Amino acid sequence: MSYLTSSGYRQGPNLILLAVVALISALIGGLLVLTIAPGYLAKRADLVESPGPSAGSGFRPVEWAGDWPVVAVAETVGPSVVGVIKQTTYHDWFSGRRTQESGGSGVVFRLAGGYSYIVTNQHVTGGASRLFVVLADGERHEAELVGEDWWTDLAVIRVPDLALPPAVFGDSDALRPGELVIAIGNPVDMEFQRSVTVGVVSGLNRKVSYGDEREFRLIQTDAAINPGNSGGPLVNASGEVVGINNMKIASQAVEGIGFAIPINTALRVMNDLVTYGRVIRPYLGVQVISSAEARQRYGLDVREGLYVARVIGGTPAARAGLRQGDVIVKLAGESVGTLADLRRVLERHRPGDTVELQVLRAGQTLSLTAVLAEAPGD
């Protein structure tokens, strides 16, 4: 399957031309009765610590005077949405040094120390020589990269406080298929700033993988996600940000399949980037290959799990007694068959946690216990 990130940057093998995503129509009418009072949308938060259920999550039928609730959501969340411009510098044989720009979106989530902190996608900021935040009136402000995380496709930038209100964050674990959601962003390289598209939650916990290493678990939506929407918010009918838009399926045979990073996943990354400049992750200390690769490339008789190619000395894996040639079948009670599986399970833990490994060694099944350490950078 081919995917296109919503800034227009392609990821994954065999990508094809971007398909035009149709705006939904019939579903909108059926959702008109499912909303909450627009007055609820006025709440704000200066500091995001952790997600949690809120009184506004989910729908309840109410009466409202005048505007459709999407108007209230757009008017409330829109001021928190900014454009993000990445400048990259390169050299060619004919013109010498050249500068290229690409655009994405971001959402203000914190005011602290005289700065506005903005979350966006890592593929929006990655490789930038300079970054800029663009306001509704087109004014540019140079931004500083606080930190970025390739594994989750998230980044945090900051600018001197622009008096933009931080968005309110909801609980992505409380989302239900069919729930009304609104995407706000700046598609087509800022040409259509603060575009508002409407759809529903089409699916939850959708698995999107890039090779054996990187795997996303995403919210699927049919709200139109176009190039430039990357890093913008996916918002529920309560005006709470429940996801960070990051990609769509790019196929002429597919319409209306976009994706967003669940905000419950994003918040931990965002807060770590602000606090430490990087994401604090647990570390096992092994180099592994999948059973398929072990069979195909090395002729090893490995039918399941992860083959341990190397155990790094002095790490949790070494202290637990793991050896080269072992096959890790389960970690913390969950089956693991790819590096992405191993990372997904590890991401649910923090340094200092104790985990059990089920290991095959010379035809025997062993249980080993490891105390996870903090990963030494990327």
How would you characterize this protein structure?
By secondary structure, the protein is mainly beta. The chain contains seven helices and 23 strands. The protein folds into two domains: 279 residues, Thrombin, subunit H; 93 residues, Pdz3 Domain (Roll). A hairpin with a 4-residue loop joins strand 1 and strand 2. It starts with a strand and ends with a strand. About 15% of the residues have low confidence.
Strand order of the largest sheet: 10-11-12-15-14-13
Query: Helical element count?
Result: 7
Number of domains: 2
Which sheet architecture does the biggest sheet show?
A: 6 strands, antiparallel, barrel
Estimate what percentage of residues fall within beta strands.
35-45%
CATH class annotation of the largest domain: Mainly Beta
Number of strands: 23
User: Which outline best applies?
Assistant: globular
pLDDT under 50 segments (min length 5)? 9-65
Q: Mean pLDDT, as a whole number?
A: 80
Rg, alpha carbons: 22 Å
Percentage of residues assigned to helices: 10-25%
Q: If classified by CATH, what would the architecture of the largest domain be?
A: Beta Barrel
CATH topology of the largest domain, by name, is Thrombin, subunit H
- Given helix and strand content, the structural type is mainly beta
Distance from first to last alpha carbon: 27 Å
Return the string of H and E elements: EEHHEEEHEEEEEEEEEEHEEHEHEEHEEE
Name the features.
378 residues; mainly beta; Thrombin, subunit H; Pdz3 Domain; 2 domains; six-stranded antiparallel barrel; six-stranded antiparallel beta barrel; 23 strands; 14% helix
